[in-house]
Amino acid sequence: MVNLTLKERLKRTLNGKTVDKTPVLAVTQTGTKDLMSLTKYYWPDANWNPKALAQLAISAHKEIGFEAVRIPYCLTVLLEALGCEIEKGDTTRQAAVKGHPYNSRKPVPIGKVPETILSSGRIPIMIEAIKIIKDIVGDNVPIIAGSEGPVTIASGLVEVTTLMRWFIREKEGLLEYLQYGSDAMISYANALLDAGADAFVVLDPVASPELISPKDFNDLVLPIYKDISKKIKGDSILHICGDITAILPSLRESGFIGLSIEEKTDMKEAKDTLEDKIKLIGNISSAKTLLNGTYNEVYEECITALEKGTDILAPGCGLAPMTPIKNCIAMIDARNNYFKK
């Protein structure tokens, strides 16, 4: 096969075409303390400064060898633009939501997404960072952008325990919040794709079967996902945390081109269930192996994931800030040696 650029390899993989080897990258956050020390760009400033954001993101490609550049580092950018109060965090803590604009016990009318959404909060910073990354890495390195998904947005607007009650008692009102989050996210996603991103990841940890029932997922969330995957103007990937085995059959019909899974979901079982409907991404443990394991333990876990059929070798969730670089490099080495066979 003719040598592929990193972008060509990713695009071909996501679209079910033959490639020379499995891509190794992250579709979740990549900021670590080691990379901050190397670049001298640190959280929390790197969440609010487009140059710092871009350079820290690029370092995961340059220093580790991940075959894409991925931004941002948290799940608060869109929620901040929608009115949530944000705790900025520090060098070892991601930014997080600390205040919810809608905290009534029952759903109140939320209206339409503001027309000014794309100029609100840090969204202009993210758009500028994408352009900076594009100028630096060129056309051959893919750029992956991501955002909170609709269920996670709703949980930030109202607080997660309130949202869980709404799934039981306030389904009609809940749908308005899910649609609101979806509309905002689609606008944001398409703005980042227009700025130069090559793929967009919908990160929806609160949609996990560990939090909401598969029936509620099918009835309330899946139709929203189908709409999102149709309206995003580029390759769209879904990430849901935890064991998502129970909703894998539903996700076959979601319309997303890729699905990122944690180690709690068995890669082979997911592959057998999804067949060729969605390309699988993951599922190297971020919290256990990459953070606290050895190089050899990461290496062996990667070989297992490749043998079970992962289409893209990746951390199963965002990298913990204290993840050692050498453990991430083990992912590259494992893939390279696997394809020497």
UniProtKB/TrEMBL annotation:
Residues passing through the membrane, by range: none
- Cofactor(s) needed: Zn(2+)
Q: Which keywords describe this protein according to UniProt? A: Metal-binding, Methanogenesis, Methyltransferase, Transferase, Zinc
Gene3D superfamilies according to UniProt: 3.20.20.210
Indicate the segments forming the Uroporphyrinogen decarboxylase (URO-D) domain, all copies.
Answer: 6-338
Question: EC?
Answer: 2.1.1.246
Q: Tell me which InterPro entries the record gives.
A: Methanogen_methyltrans, Mtase_MtaA_CmuA, UROD/MetE-like_sf, Uroporphyrinogen_deCOase
Q: Pfam families of this UniProt entry? A: URO-D
Q: Which domain of life is it from?
A: Archaea
Q: Name one GO biological process term.
A: one-carbon metabolic process
Give GO MF terms, alphabetically. Answer: [methyl-Co(III) methanol-specific corrinoid protein]:coenzyme M methyltransferase; metal ion binding; uroporphyrinogen decarboxylase activity
Enzyme class, UniProt record, top EC level: transferase
The protein here is known as: Methylcobamide:CoM methyltransferase MtaA
Q: What is the lineage of its organism?
A: Archaea, Methanobacteriati, Methanobacteriota, Stenosarchaea group, Candidatus Methanofastidiosia
